[in-house]
Amino acid sequence: MKTMKKIVRAKEKIIARKKLTETLASLRKQGQKIVFTNGCFDLLHVGHVRYLNKAKQQGDVLIVALNTDASVRRLKGLPRPLVPQRERAEIIGGLAAVDYVTFFGEEAPADIIAELKPHVLVKGADYKAKDIVGNAFIKNSGGRVVRIPLAKGQSTTNLIKDIVRKYG
Questions:
Q1: What is the number of other CB atoms lying within 10 angstroms of the CB of residue 136?
Q2: At 135, is the secondary structure helix, strand, or coil?
Q3: How does residue 3 score in pLDDT terms, banded at 50, 70 and 90?
Q4: Beta-carbon neighbour count of residue 117 at 10 Å?
Q5: Structural domains in the chain?
Q6: pTM above 0.70, yes or no
Q7: Are strands 144-148 and 61-67 parallel, antiparallel or unpaired?
Q8: CA 135 – CA 120 distance, rounded (Å)
């Protein structure tokens, strides 16, 4: 007889930072390796899915910290984000590779990385290791930083340009 794996609904994966900190402390005690990544994830595309699947392979529990809408606007300008933060969180939470989704509104994720204390920090290979926010903290904590190659030609900006070209 097959064992049934509990289906976790996407919305159940969205968790406040304080609660997530408590949850991760418990998971750490169980020997789970915590992996962290962050980003806007506005208009999810195959590059995002591949990236998150590879991030999950780096440990046991994958945390995705999403930029809040205000944070995306500061980084990308108007009219971004195209998808509101609660919807982006639900979409990301709907991916099997993702265990928890939380938000951060700071300019950079240094505070949330220090708060959550992951074992592994994952970013795209478009970042140089020295430029990855949290790099020194993770390494000083005995963790590691992993840079994952991006899917060629895949980006939200390219997707927007393609949509405008085809339908605009």
A1: 12
A2: helix
A3: low
A4: 16
A5: 10-167 (3.40.50.620)
A6: yes
A7: unpaired
A8: 10
Q: Which helix (H) or strand (E) holds 25?
A: helix 17-29
Task: Give the number of residues written for the chain.
Answer: 168
Distance from C-alpha of 45 to C-alpha of 123, rounded to nearest angstrom? 16
Instruction: Decide: residue 53, CB within 10 A, 0-12 exposed, 13-18 middle, 19+ buried.
Output: middle
Starting at the edge strand found earlier in the chain, the sheet holding 61-67 runs 100-104, 61-67, 34-39, 120-124, 144-148
Residue that the structure tokens 């007889």 belong to: 1
From the centroid of its chain, how far is CA 131? 17
Identify the H or E element spanning 38. strand 34-39
Residue type, 136: A
Each residue of 69-116: pLDDT tens digit? Answer: 999 999 999 999 999 999 999 999 999 999 999 999 998 999 999 999
Q: CA–CA separation, 73 vs 114, rounded Å?
A: 24
CB 159 within 8 A of CB 45: yes
